Amino acid sequence: MSSPQSSDSSRPQGHFDAPETIQQPKLNFVGYLRFFWRQLTSMRTALFLLLLLAIAAIPGSLVPQVSSDPNGVIQYKANNPGIAPILDKLQVFTTYSSVWFSAIYLLLFISLIGCVIPRTKHHFDALRARPPRTPARLQRLEGFTARSATGDAATAVLVARDLLRKQGYRTEVYEDSVSAERGYLRETGNLVFHTALIGVLVTVGIGGGFGYTGQRVVVEGYAMTNTLASYDSFNPGRFFTDAALEPYSIALDTFVPTYEEQNLDALGQPTDFVANVTTTLRGGEPQKATIKVNEPLNIGGTDVFLLGNGYAPVVTVRDPDGNVVFSQPTACLPQDANLRSNCIIKIPDGLAQQVGMIGFFYPTAAPMADGTLISSYPDTINPVLSLFMYTGDLGLDNGQGTNAYALSLDNLTQIVGADSGTPAIQLRPGDKADLPDGLGSIELTSVPRFVSLDIHHDPAQLWVLLFAVLVVAGLVTSLFIPRRRVWVKAAQNDDGTLSLEYAGLARGDDPGLDAAVAEFADRHTDQLGLKVGP
Amino acid sequence: MTDTLVQFSTVAVYSAMAIYALAFIMFTLDLSRRVAVVAAPAAAEIAAASANGYTTVLEKDAPAEPKAKTPRYLRAAMALTVIAWVLHVGAAVFRGVAAGRVPWANMFEFTLTATAIIIGVFLAVQFWQDLRFIGAFVTGFVLIALGVATVNFYVDVVPLPPSLQSAWLVIHVFVASLGTGFFALGAALSVVQLLQARRAAGKAARLRFLDTLPAADKLENMAYRMIVVGFVFWTFTLIAGAIWANRAWGRYWGWDTKEVWTFIIWTIFAGYIHARATRGWRGSRSAWLAIIGFTAVVFNFTIVNLFFKGLHAYSGL
Question: For the whole model, what pTM was predicted?
Answer without folding.
Answer: 0.84
